[in-house]
Design a protein that fits this description.
13 helices, Dihydrodipicolinate Reductase, domain 2, Rossmann fold, eight-stranded mixed beta sheet, 2 domains, six-stranded parallel beta sheet, alpha/beta
């Protein structure tokens, strides 16, 4: 299938690399308001460059559009692509409110097209093993489920673009922008949340509207309790990995980025020794922890391949809008709690 990218910045470049590496996809075109950016990215991958979105979308060969614009600027290009009869894969968050996500979902249904989010931290071997263990009930009664994203962004990062650190175009700070994939991973593994109580602050940055640290106490529908802690003011030399930790009456698993710090179950299975041999964590730096460019594109590649496979097979993709909505709903509830003195908010 022929792909086009809207947005030729850092994320657009990751999309291009993922599309180039994937099966059953090729980069066909790039659209950006800045012609030099569109031409540069398109030229590197043998694609066509556009600055006018209507002309870009009118191309009959274009089948799938990926969206790499700022978070709060997803609605219009996604709607335009769906109305033009294109399938859409949109960067995180799908949109910054559930109301906007619902509008996009309705448009996809109206035009009979696939709308998918990029939930790339679901697509690596460690997550495959973690999800299998959770689905098999190996934790027994789940009692604890938490996520920690202790990252760092310097002031220059926020000063580099006018939209960074704004509610309108970032949709939030450390939680919505840097941590949404880890929040999604927590929900993917532990299930839906019943309530949250949160506090947030901006402690280490200037000239931004949003938080650089947030801590939330979380109660899950299954009874488990946990913590979501996210920051962009937690410096370390190499950067801390993003962590998801589940524990229950029969086991504990601590995931750090793509590998495990803990993999322990009361009842051992034959695959456990191999998982510990191949997927236990070394001393590598955290992916994207200090440098947003320091991420792997292969997770995007697998995400794209899943969407194409779903379209070809005529089924719902695993990263559909409904799945993407869950993390945004939880994040908005955490913000509501934090903005109201840490009151308990029910989802």
């Amino acid at each position: 299938m022929k792909f086009g990218i809207i947005g030729a910045g850092m994320i657009g470049n990751f999309h291009a690399k993922a599309i180039q590496a994937m099966e059953h996809g090729e980069l066909h075109s790039v659209c950006s308001l800045r012609i030099e950016s569109a031409e540069k990215l398109a030229g590197e991958f043998g694609a066509k460059a556009f600055t006018d979105i209507d002309t870009f979308l009118a191309d009959p060969e274009l089948e799938i559009v990926t969206i790499g614009t700022p978070s709060g600027a997803h609605l219009d290009p996604v709607l335009a692509a769906l109305k033009a009869g294109k399938h859409v894969i949109c960067e995180k968050p799908l949109e910054i409110t559930t109301e906007r996500i619902d509008e996009l979902t309705a448009a996809a249904k109206e035009h009979g097209k696939t709308l998918s989010a990029i939930l790339n931290r679901r697509f690596h071997p460690g997550m495959d093993a973690f999800k299998k263990a959770a689905d098999e009930g190996r934790f027994g009664k789940l009692t604890s489920a938490s996520a920690y994203v202790k990252w760092y962004r310097d002031q220059a990062y926020y000063d580099s673009a006018g939209w960074r650190g704004t509610w309108a175009l970032d949709g939030g700070g450390a939680l919505m922008n840097q941590s949404i994939h880890t929040v999604d991973a927590l929900l993917y593994l532990a299930g839906p949340v019943k309530s949250v109580q949160a506090n947030a602050a901006c402690l280490a940055h200037q000239r931004i509207e949003v938080e650089d640290i947030v801590v939330a106490a979380v109660e899950f529908e299954n009874g488990a309790l946990g913590v979501i802690e996210c920051s962009t003011c937690t410096w370390s030399k190499d950067g801390h990995p993003a962590r998801v930790q589940l524990s229950g009456t029969d086991g504990s698993v601590f995931l750090a980025d793509e590998s495990f710090e803990i993999w322990e179950f009361r009842d051992e299975k034959p695959e456990d020794a191999e998982i510990r041999r191949t997927l236990m964590k070394g001393q590598e730096a955290g992916l994207g922890a200090n440098d947003p460019k320091a991420i792997n594109f292969y997770q995007h590649q697998r995400n794209f391949e899943e969407v194409v496979a779903a379209i070809r097979e005529g089924r719902e993709c695993k990263t559909n809008a409904s799945e993407a909505r869950k993390a945004v709903e939880l994040i908005r509830a955490i913000y509501e709690s934090a903005q109201n003195g840490g009151k308990k908010v029910y989802l």
